[in-house]
Amino acid sequence: MFRISWFRVVLDEAQTIKNHRTQTARAAWAIKSLRRWCLSGTPMQNSVDDLFSYFRFLKQEPYSEYPSFRSLIRDPIAKTPDLGFKRLQTILQVSRVSGVELALRVQLVASYGLACGR
Is the pTM of this model over 0.85? Predict the structure, then answer.
């Protein structure tokens, strides 16, 4: 599986990789593919940190590296939630629309009132 370069990998029930410290998350990140989608009805269950694995799986720079994710997304939300979530909203709006991002936007709007365009 890891030797094949896939055209598209669809990670259904993507919340299974929400903990970036698990072997499951690391294995998902290691899969080679041209396109990547994540589907999840519950992208954020416990904390904003749950989103890091999605960014990592999607290879969305600079948020796919934990120090950048922490300083650009997690810490601003922890310090000033209103401004931090606005920043997250902007990041999601600017991100290229793909399967997970679209699904993630829909869920964030429904769950947290984040109005994400496109």
Answer: no
